Amino acid sequence: MEYSDILLASMLGSCRLTYEGKALDSKNVRSKRIWTLLAYLITNRHRAVTQNELIELLYPNDKSEAPLSALKTLVHRTRSALNKLEFADGKLLIQQSLGGYRWNRDLPLEVDVESFETIANEASKLSGDQDVQLQTRLRAIDLYKGDFLADFLEEAWIIPVTSYYRYLFMDTVILALEGLMERNRYSDLIGVAQKAIGINPYEERLYYYLVSALIHTNQIPAAKTQYENMTKLFYSEFGVTPSKELQSLYKKLTNANNGIEKDLNIITTQMQDDVDKRGAYYCEYEFFKDIYKLVIRTVVRDEKPVHICLLSINPKEANALPPK
After folding, report:
1. Residue of 112, 111, 134, 113 whose CA lies nearest to 122
2. How much is the mean pLDDT over the chain?
3. Are the CB atoms for 11 and 112 separated by under 8 Å?
4. Sheet-wide strand order for 16-19
5. Which residues partner with 23 through β-bridges?
6. CB-based contacts of 74: which residues, under 8 Å, 6+ apart?
7. Strand order in the sheet with 49-50
8. pTM value?
9. Tens digit of each residue's pLDDT (9 = 90 or more) over 100-142
């Protein structure tokens, strides 16, 4: 196995430092403060970070004199942990500077989140060759293993950084899915969409592309499962139903699921499955319209009255009702 003489810092997903086959991760360094200090210094390595800034970051609720001593101890522990990589002396990596500390920018360091950003932005500039542009976007997506420092999302400084990279990732994914759909690369599309949903399950467009690709590859049960899971998730979390585009896609899905069956016994068995169920029957609006058309045709022939009723539940106060 060949190794690089560059220190590798992974910040997409969990935080990890790697050099020549040796690694620092949450398994061998369990201190959250050590990882916060490392991540913050690496992210802000273009400048010196003052002691007060680090104290506010690492000991926000401690207003005594103790945090300064605690910070010095933490820096010492962090340098000792870095020594285990045998890349460079910990004191050389984390330098004291201007009443604070800084990461040594003179030593070679590759950060995955910055590589992702560079490749994603490079793809947006490749307007000439769309195939090369698509492959470049797929390279960027492959680098995105998870949100920026996903294990530290409760820390305030991480939130805007995470939002920026999440937006760049989703923009890259949607454009890549469009390109894959245009080229009928459904297997690749399914992989990209599933990965993106694992990172951001609340983006409806991802489900549209995923369900479409599953239908095109004749994976009807999987497409139906994805659609139903999405519907339950969105309704339980936000109290909303799928968009018209997805409802239209669901209609295609139900049509595809109702293939021609010539065995009457099988048809009867399938029809009998839900007969014994009681209570209200819930269905998608597109499917409800088909039921409505069927009922109308029946009552016209039989000359029987039929009524449609809409029940709306409104709260007494301005606050919206919870979905349940």
Report:
1. 134
2. 87
3. yes
4. 22-24, 16-19, 7-10, 109-111
5. 18
6. 33, 34, 37, 58
7. 49-50, 100-103, 94-97
8. 0.79
9. 999 999 999 999 999 999 999 999 998 778 999 999 999 999 9
